[in-house]
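Q: What structure does this chain adopt?
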Amino acid sequence: MDSDRPVLFFDSGLGGLTVLREARYLLPYERLLYVADDAAFPIGRWPEADLKARLLSLFRELIADHRPKAAVIACNTAFTLAGDALRKAHPEVPFVGTVPAIKPAAERTSSGLISVLATPGTVRRTYTRSLIDSFAGQCHVRLVGSDMLAELAELHLRGDAVADEALLAEISDCFMERDGKRTDIVVLACTHYPFLANRFRKIAPWPVDWLDPAEAIARQLVRVLGTLLAAEPASTPDRAVFTSNPGDPALERLLAGFGLVLERG
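A:
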């Protein structure tokens, strides 16, 4: 039955929880399955061919095992690399992707100076540059690749200390001044980064709009599900699967705060 089939959310770590959190507000009756490929984290450093092969192999198993009614790739790096290939390989599953929110940033900016804060993989991707060409041709867009922010976000979310200086070193290149104008929007092009947004606001050299795509992704998921939407509450709890199969009580408590039960292998 469709009511037994989960909506799958995928990320390399905890970042996709920002998207799942928004989706739960709009989809209170759906059974949610969160899958983190934490054994491969951080995936932004993987060679593209190896990462694409891993994603295709992993999704073959996930779709066979769980039969999701839809799959959300809550990771810019994964979707911009393998989204098209996943859709071709699994036409029976609607995929909702995550791409840098360049179009809404171009629509909102007053100064015309936009920065895209992303992993190195997303910055390198032709997909990202095509979004700039298509939607932000009249803007000056700076791509800022961070080697460490996703890992710092994981540490922050798990309750470990993360120094302001470490964060500022990763975001400082986002701030531009040209012809008396300043950057006014920073696109958070990694689902981990919204967990640090309040920290960013405190240490930024001036106020900007930190653009988080999670709500827009959740709304698109509702549209994609359409007639498949559950009409009554799920009979089983929402679950989380981590590919490293961690036995971590602190992680279990963190996930419980998002309404998820950690499944052990």
